[in-house]
Each structure stands twice: as C-alpha cells, then as structure tokens.
C-alpha cells in the first residue's frame, strides 16, 4: 500500500471520525481513571505525530510484507458458492497471516509505537488467545518483556494458544476475578497499566478502549480493506456488493469496512455472536441487543442489566465473548451505514464444518460466524454479485472446542 | 457553602485532619451499611465515601472488587445506594456523604435522574472515577446550580496542564491518589507524595485529601502530615468482608469491623494535639 493511502483524508463527513477528543458521534472518548490519563494523552500525541511520518508507514508496510506475509489472498470459494449462492462468496484470507489471524496487523503497528516510546515492557489482554499470541510474537521479535492477561475460563478453552504464548516467552496470567473471561482480562490489564505506567505499553487487541486505541487499531487493521478493495477491482473489475465480518470488539470488521465506508453501493454486515439466540439473553451481541453505556474507557453499546451492571456473555467463540464493542461500530450502527446482525453458536458450528469440508479451510469459530451469515446472504443475491467475507483467523485453536461439542476426546 | 465545605472548614478550625472512610453500599446488605455509617461517625469519620457497586471496577484492587461483588450478589444497585443514604440521613444530618463509583450505572439511570435522586437522598458529593473533567460537562451542568460537589482525582502521573483544569472544575476537595496503581496497593515514597501535594497547593485553595494505600495508623499519620486528611478504603472493606461471613451482625461486630477508623482518629488527634 502506498503511503498516501494511509494518511487520513481531510474531508469532514460521517466517516472522518474520530474528532480530536476521540469521539465518533456520541461514542468513543476517554473514560479511564486519572492515573492513566497522562499515558493515554501521550500515546495520542505520539501516534498523531508518527502517523504523519511516511517512514513509520514504510516500516509497517515492510513488516506486513516480509514478516506477516501480506497481501493476503482474496479467494473465491467456488464449492461454498455452488452450495449457498446466489452471489459469489469470496474470502479475504487473514487466516494465512503469520500467527494465523488478523491480530498481527495491529500488534506489529503497536509494537512500533512501543519501540518508539522506549517502553521495555508490554502487556495485552486476550480472549481466544489470538491477540495474546500476536502480542507475544512481536515481543519476542523485539526482545520486549510480555505479560498477557487471559480469563481463567479462556485459559481452559484455549490451552493450545496458552502454550504458544509461553513458548514465545510471554508470561500468561490467568484472571480469576469477575466472570473470568475477556472483560475481566481487560480490567486486569488496565490495573497493571496503572501500576506500571512508566515502563509499560498496553497493546489493546481490538478497536475498543480509550481514545486513541479505537483509531489507531483501526488504522493498523485497515490494510485488510485497502487490499480487498484493490484486489476486488483488479480481479472482478468492480467493488464487492457486500462485505461481511464477525464483530466481537470489532477490529477485523472495521479493518475490512473502513476503506469502503464512502462507497455507498457496498453493503456491510457486522455479525455478532448470537450464542443460544439473542432472544434467550445468552449471547454476546451488544449492537443487536445492548444499549449505550461506558465500559473499558469508551462510550459504546454494552450489554448491561437494568442497574447498569455489565452482564456475562455467552458464545462458543472465546474471541467474540465480550460485552462491549468498538465505538466506531456503535456510530456506524446509529447512522445505519453498517447492518449489525447475529448468528447462533449452532449456525456458526455448521458453517465451520461446511467451510472445512467444501473448501479445505478450517476457520476460526469467530470467522465461522461471518461465513454463516454470508451463506444466508448469498442465497438472497444474484450470481453476478460478490460478497467479500473476512476470514479473520484459522481454526486450529478451536479443534478441541469442536471435538468436545462432538463428544470426542483428542 | 456545601455541607462538605463547612465540615472541612470546621475540622481545620479545630486543628483536626479530616478522616474519610470508604465502604461499599450494600456490602453485605443495605441495613448493615447504614449501621456501619453511623458507627464510622462515632469512630470519628468526618465524611463518608460510599461506593456504588459496579461489576467492572477497573481502577480498584481485588478487595474493593470483592466488596462490590458481595453487594451485587445481594441485588444492590443505585436504588440501594440512595436508600442507604436516606436511612442514614434519618439520624444524621451533619456528616457529608460522597458517592464514589463508575459511570455505566449512572449513564444507565441518566445523569439528570442520578443527580436529582442523589440530592433528594441527601448526598453531598459525587466522584466518578472513569469520568475525567474533559467528559464531565453534562454532569457538571446539572450539579453547578445545586449544593452538590463534584470531586476529581489527581494522580502522580497528572500533568500540570491537567491539574489546572481539574482544579478549575472540582469542588469540595481534591482527591490525591498517592500511588501509581489501584486501590489497596502498597504506599510508595512519602517524600515524593509530600512534594506532589505541595505542588497541588499552589494550583488550588481546595482542601487536599490523600487516598489509595492507607491501611494503618502509620500510613494515615504519614499522609495526614502532608495533606488536609486521609481516605481509608480497602483496609476497611477487607474487615467488612469478614463481617459478611457471619449472620449475627450485632453492634459489637459492627464496631469491631470499623475499629481501624477509631484508632486512626485517635492517632491523628493525638498527633495534632
């Protein structure tokens, strides 16, 4: 990608957010304890400066190509299309990135920031373990100390990724407070950051957290959409008719969507984790069934009860099991630019099996949510139309979960 | 002049350092919280900070999170907080009460309802840890016309520019966070804290209270020496946690669980005498 494409356009419209204080409409902003305010402001200043520096993006692009293996292919899933289309289902193969998911796009970028700021110690939170692995990976590469907070439940669910992080030299800290999942890992990481703020860079794994995180994580993930846009034009001679991506915190989705936001002919679908079904209350779909609130440093849609307490989420996919969502998604929902939908655990598992058997690609359970919705959507569209689905990660980490559900012990 | 202002002014005039205990409303239940508040006043508390329980208290340590979880398990919410303050006010119309907590329950209720109900219940001040001054205008617009103080934190990391803006928007007192970290952590270098508080003095005439990491008479004396008063939370909430394990919460047990506050009061007063 050329440098000029990565610099924000000066145009002020619905899609030019965030403002200087980190707001996307009424969402976003900075809502953290005073101890962290200086660190957050410093990061904002550093990023504003570096993101205007072509050398910074040259280094990022170099790592994307030679370390991550980008660009990732755009792959037409012919047998999946034959079964479910309608429209052609095309996969953006983020699962082929080094470490097996889109998360590395962000950790490479943030590691450059940590290096520039001279921080010797990085911390991260992780749900499915993909962001933890991607953080441990860049830490190993740069020789930084790395501590990963992970809910005790998720440590159980994602044992293989825990071991990968340990092999990479990271210290994995199981979080036993609260609901013992991703949100509690975030709380614990924020506490660590407040305690070790002088030495520590906090690599947030998604487009949430206080400003500037939702902006900078988006900028690092937008390489997905920039590539998909160029590849679509080159291979199909047109923009896609629809984009589909799963939404937990929402980083792979915003990465795919953002470079297309001003292309009004491109429809967009963010797929949340419906768990047992949104109507059952056992899900992880704040945009589908939550309301605006404040969690983990930003104002956004959250899942909370009538007292304003954050409620426990349910999803077969650890990476989507989060009660909040990036603030830019909340904004894109309110202005109706993106359609937010949900699929259930069962539908995601069916899609996981379908993609594996029809295309020889084992998707992450997170990405299987996007596949499931894309199959439904394709059936309603015509064969000349195309859908680009973000296959955000590979499913090796999930085989134990799926085997368990099938009653098989590996 | 708010109730907080006159309370602190009276303490100052008497040569007393202010003592501000923090407990979680509804931990372990509302009635016990009211009894604890009256006991704390007897023990010599000047102001009471009442925690509004929240599921994700990311600026607090494990002890206060557990206190919030005990309260939430018993169904506590902002309704409990207001009812605790109302009951307390039936017998005590002098001791200022400051609500301390996180924003999401407040946003869920709505700022206007929250401020109105706080005022009606007899609350004197509000402290929302995840609401920095830069995002606080909607709240401040509602509190300014009332005798309702809004208290903000200043941390060891706070820049001079931020200090100026925080002092401009604060009322009641400034809460100086003694350490980098969360509530209940170990106190750091007292010399550095003294220096920071002295720096703050040049930016504001508001009283400065020091909190985080004060867990015994020694740390309370050290912090009171450099400030206008001290806030004691985790050490007290820890004792209340033990209280929650017993069913018979008679006056003796209530007094036992707040004994730390009585001993700190004694130590502070004998020091200033």
Automatic annotation (TrEMBL), chain A:
Pathway: Amino-acid biosynthesis; L-tryptophan biosynthesis; L-tryptophan from chorismate: step 5/5. The keyword Lyase applies. One of its GO terms (cellular component) is cytoplasm. Its cofactor is pyridoxal 5'-phosphate. GO terms for molecular function: tryptophan synthase activity. Residues 69-393 form the Tryptophan synthase beta chain-like PALP domain. InterPro entries: Trp_synth_b_CS, Trp_synth_beta, Trp_synth_beta/beta-like, TrpB-like_PALP, TrpB-like_PALP_sf. Its EC number is 4.2.1.20. It catalyses: (1S,2R)-1-C-(indol-3-yl)glycerol 3-phosphate + L-serine = D-glyceraldehyde 3-phosphate + L-tryptophan + H2O. Coiled coil: none annotated. It is an enzyme of class 4 (lyase). The keyword Lyase applies. Keywords: Amino-acid biosynthesis, Aromatic amino acid biosynthesis, Lyase, Pyridoxal phosphate, Tryptophan biosynthesis. NCBIfam families: trpB. HAMAP family: Trp_synth_beta. This is tryptophan synthase.
TrEMBL record, chain B:
The keyword Transmembrane helix does not apply. The keyword Amino-acid biosynthesis applies. One of its GO terms (cellular component) is cytosol. SUPFAM superfamilies: Ribulose-phoshate binding barrel. Gene3D superfamilies: Aldolase class I. It is an enzyme of class 4 (lyase). Pathway: Amino-acid biosynthesis; L-tryptophan biosynthesis; L-tryptophan from chorismate: step 5/5. It catalyses: (1S,2R)-1-C-(indol-3-yl)glycerol 3-phosphate + L-serine = D-glyceraldehyde 3-phosphate + L-tryptophan + H2O. GO terms for molecular function: tryptophan synthase activity. The alpha subunit is responsible for the aldol cleavage of indoleglycerol phosphate to indole and glyceraldehyde 3-phosphate. NCBIfam families: trpA. PANTHER family: TRYPTOPHAN SYNTHASE ALPHA CHAIN, CHLOROPLASTIC (PTHR43406:SF1), TRYPTOPHAN SYNTHASE, ALPHA CHAIN (PTHR43406). This is tryptophan synthase.
